[in-house]
Amino acid sequence: MKLKTPLSALTIAVSLALSSPLFAADHAEAPLVESDAASDIADVYAFLDPNDNSKAVLAFDVHGFIVPGENGNLGGFDSSVSYQFNIENTGDAVADKLITVTFSELSGRGKAQRSTITLSNPDGSGKVSFTGPTSPASATAAIAPKAVVKTDSATGISFFAGVVDDPFFFDIPGFNRFAASVLSGKPDASLLNRGRDTFAGYNSQMIALRVPVAMLKGSAGDVIGVSATTLRNAQTLRSSTADPVNTGAYQPIDRMGVPTINTVLIPFPRKNEYNRASTADDAAGKFAGDIVGTLTALGTDAAHIGILADVAVTKGDMLRLNTAVANTGKQGGNNAGAGFPNGRRPVDDVIDTVLFLVTNEGLTTGDNVNANDEVFRDKFPFFAASHQPLPTGTLDDNTRN
Ligand SMILES: [Ca+2]
Ligand SMILES: [Ca+2]
Ligand SMILES: [Ca+2]
Ligand SMILES: [Ca+2]
């Protein structure tokens, strides 16, 4: 797939005249997760460790838009949520391995939580577990506390969970103002020149694993599918005399694989339903009509609907990572042709890629936000350290609203 052609304002103008979706990754994309930040998946990542391609980094974050001054109060992981990675390795839409992460209740500000990381088959058999600490967040330190990485000697899996710079980058108001200008009949592409990253200056809560590729692969060979699901117990009993008691089997709250699918392509009335559904439902065509309908309204042609359907419908809404494609370079890898839609790396400008496909390869300048506001780390967990409160007298352009 070639991803550089001249901007065609006309193509995007025609597209936006028909529909004005709100582009984002998956932050607050559906009404039920908008008010459940702890369960609200923001982005999912799957890429080979550029320092050692025999290991894959699987990661997702929740709870977008943590302002640095609240790192302490908002940085604890919810002990009543199960955070789950779904691994597919037989070439269909059904996960073949699960890795779940749960957290003990936070015992005090700045304290680490005990995380339990469990590998299992989907039916619960074959369980292997280990524990590790979260990386405590600070709302007072000028420099973010060090990332704490636990490597389990039995499985070879490394684990990180903590507050980081939100790795997603995109100008939401710029794009939506441009959309509005199109809808008003006066398309103004200069509104895309604003280039302000809506997510800059804010933090989110990241869960990241570095897993031997050999543990992830199956009969499909080198290609693995990766998605994330957050789950809560079926029942919560509340009373005026005690903390809530959660019982019953875990039920899905949010899910994500490929960026922008639920946010952009699923009609608003079905967004909650999409989050509860499975990747097998995707492959069975449960939302295919909605996705094709939205893309058709956006002016996407049959060939590009086919490309997008292949990514998010045919084998379910999962990132697909070919572990035989070498990932090299800084910041989690940046070599050409190795990133999204082959898995997803921190540096990948996924919005521009999706816009490029949705507009039949007509839009290449995208939103003019072409990189994260922070430089990603060169080693696991790769995501940048959290933004911290700034010194007195600092002219603050960190949050680029
Ligand atoms: Ca979400
Ligand atoms: Ca499978
Ligand atoms: Ca950022
Ligand atoms: Ca961009």
Name the descriptors.
5-stranded antiparallel β-sheet; 401 residues; 11 helices; disordered N terminus; alpha+beta; 7-stranded antiparallel β-sheet
Q: State the separation between the terminal residues, measured CA to CA.
A: 33 Å
Rough outline: globular
Strand count: 12
What sequence of helices (H) and strands (E) makes up the elements?
HHEEHEEEEEEHEHEEHHHHHEH
Unique ligands: calcium ion
> Which blocks of ≥5 consecutive residues have pLDDT under 50?
1-20
Q: Which radius of gyration do the C-alpha atoms yield?
A: 20 Å
Mean pLDDT: 91
SS-derived structural category: alpha+beta
Helical percent range?
Answer: 10-25%
Total separate domains: 1
Q: List the total number of helices.
A: 11
